[in-house]
Please model this.
Amino acid sequence: MQKIWTNFKGDRTIWVMVGFLYIISILAVYSSTGSLAYRLQAGNAEYYLIKHAIIIGFGLALMYLAHKVRYPYYSRISQLALFIAIPLLLFTLFRGTNIHEAYRWITLPVIQITFQSSDFAKFALVMYLARILTRKQDYIKDFRAAVLPAVIPVLLVCALILPANFSTAAILFTTCIVLMFIARVRVRYIMSLIGIGVVGAALFIAIMMALPEKGRTLTWQNRVNTFINQEQGDTYQADQAKIAIASGGIIGKLPGNSTQRNYLPQAYSDFIYAIIIEEYGLIGGFMVLLFYLVILYRGIKIAHKSPGTFGALLAAGLSFGLVFQAMVNMAVAVNLLPITGQPLPLVSMGGTSLWFTSLSLGIILSVSRASANEETGNQEHPEMPHEAVQEQLSQ
Model:
């Protein structure tokens, strides 16, 4: 066992936190898919358990492989990833698969697997932005030379995600803003970018509302109106989530004893946190929150110790984006935000989100490996020094 554990390099705390979240995910998904199994699989609940366990196993493999790659290589990979992501978003926008009244998915031919292109785009953009901001550090205060090349891909990708998935575009845009702040971009440029983003989103919504086919704007409007005027709108999902949380109490009903899983839509995805609190109580809900906060803390610490600027921005951007999405999901479950449709990273059922989250954590651990090797002087798997990283990025 000790020999196996030694193969998992990097920050051990993150490995442990991810392991706990994987275990919670398997238990929560198995419990919350009971009604889904009766509707679609003739009561065979083990079908979703096995399927989700395989998805998690593949996610763990991706995380392990990603943490074995030296992090400077992700600079070049980010260029290819963004080059692929933009056409995928365009294809999804015009020819995507409609699921739950939203064109967010691509159905892969032959194998018939649905793939959410925005998850890949988020992953690609954060890596690419870290690369651009690293290359421009010597003149980061110059708008035309440094800031503009970073702003253009952010606006482009977020604009392509926005029509089908407002919340994902908003989370990604916020993550990019935080990454620019960490990279020492002037505050006035950041504020200008925020202004452009807000005005652009408002114009898009206004234009869509004026068209006969209003797209997703009516859904967004209804969700916000329902959240603000809860006595007048359709609050079924929020009410069922409240019942689940209230009935959980301090210690919960124990695993597998949820009743609201039979009434709460998307209990295995968007509202899985409510089911966790119902079965594990406020203690279980707090522990899940704590796991994410620990991942964010360790990600910031890894960024601080990173031997290069690219590694620091990579670790900071990926960890913040992951945890910010988790906070949004949990805030929706406890009725602090309108319904967004965001899954709980590493916990909700679904392959695309879990796999790219696992890849992100693997890259953070790759940065952590480099930091540990530099501190200990380990030459068994030498990492590129800061100068070599900068030279590779400038090519």
